[in-house]
Amino acid sequence: MSAPAFGPLTVVDMHTGGEPLRIVTGGYPDLPKGTILQKRAYVRDNLDHLRKILMFEPRGHADQYGALLVEPDLPGADLAVLFMHNEGYSTMCGHAIVALGRYAVDQGLVPPGETVTLVNIECPCGLVRAEVTMQGGKPAEVSFESVPSFLFARDKTLAIGAWGKVTFDIAYGGAFYALADARQFGLKFGRDSVAAFVDAADALTRAAQAAIPLSHPDADDLSFLYGSILTDGRDAYSGEPTRNVCVFADRQVDRSPTGSGVTARLAAMQARGQIATGQKRVFQSIIGSRFTGSLASLTHSGPHKAITARVSGRAYYSGKAEFIIEDDDPLSEGFLVR
Question: Which of 93, 123, 125, 246 is catalytic?
Fold first, then answer.
């Protein structure tokens, strides 16, 4: 075996509700100092080949997700993270926050508390506080309080391919999502294939991206539509779980209920008077895994009435690995077959 073309990339793999998180533990060069958004831009413009190596086949897959820990810039942050996926770099990821909360305690990045350990995580969208419940001295369930989140556009209607007119909202939960009732596409959870949901959600994302300009009061880099979330239509508060699937980036399917997506849904629900502060909802994913979500506070984000949400879930380890490249490997930087 020839010498690798770069320092070995080492990772720890976890999952939250079935959604993978590949945490980079070694192999990246040091990044220039700056804000988290400047670091995100630097990695995107200069080190994107490393994302492809980690996310793409043969080391990853089309739905792989990753986290690169970087030097924090915000006061009070215990760690900072850049999120990566099959298309690029997102601004917020709730399932990753849940996993990183546990990881930070296990790795001694923060001193453990007796019953709860607080972990302040700097994300491209802002500072997110995770609360790690301790059981027998070990981390268990992790909750986080979101950045200010809001309903951006309500009851928009567009003609979407063969499905005709579809009505949807756009809400921000650390990233912007289009939210629509799956029944408008003739889809039902438990009956129709994941591929059918992907086609419908991707079509909605592309149509909304073309028709509706987005803006965020904090930074232009946050002003993009990350994906679409199709729901079962059970938005009004009840004791029953509500189901959704998030399709983001390049037709990537979230196996979890989507932490930032749950936050966006809660912001839309609150704006419509469908949920009150302190009420809990259970959100179920395409594979049946669950997050619990509730309104933590009422606030503002620039001109928008906003909320912060509290989202809870559990993360588990699934492995660790070291990746190399051989000099003569023609597929060294990875590929995707879909």
Answer: 93
Per-residue pLDDT tens digits for 243-259: 999 999 999 999 999 99
Distant-in-sequence, close-in-space partners of 15: CB < 8 Å, separation ≥ 6 = 21, 99, 255, 315, 316, 318
- The model's pLDDT over 104-157, given as tens digits with 9 standing for 90+, comes to 999 999 999 999 999 999 999 999 999 999 999 999 999 999 999 999 999 999
* d(C-alpha 257, C-alpha 96), whole Å: 12
For 288, residues 6+ apart whose C-beta sits below 8 A from its C-beta are none
Residue 172 CB contacts under 8 Å (≥ 6 apart), including other chains: 149, 150, 152, 216, 222, 264, 267, 301, 304
Which domains, ranges and CATH numbers included, belong to the chain? Answer: 9-145+317-323 (3.10.310.10), 150-312 (3.10.310.10)
DSSP 59-122: TS-TT--EEEEE---STT-SEEEEEE-SSS--S--HHHHHHHHHHHHHTTSS---SSEEEEEEE
Catalytic residue list contains 93: yes
The pLDDT tens digits for 159-204 are 999 999 999 999 999 999 999 999 999 999 999 999 999 999 999 9
Full DSSP string of 263-328: HHHHHHHHHTTS--TT-EEEEE-TTS-EEEEEEEEEEEETTEEEEEEEEEE-EEEEEEEEE--BTT
* Joined tokens for residue 18: 């079935």
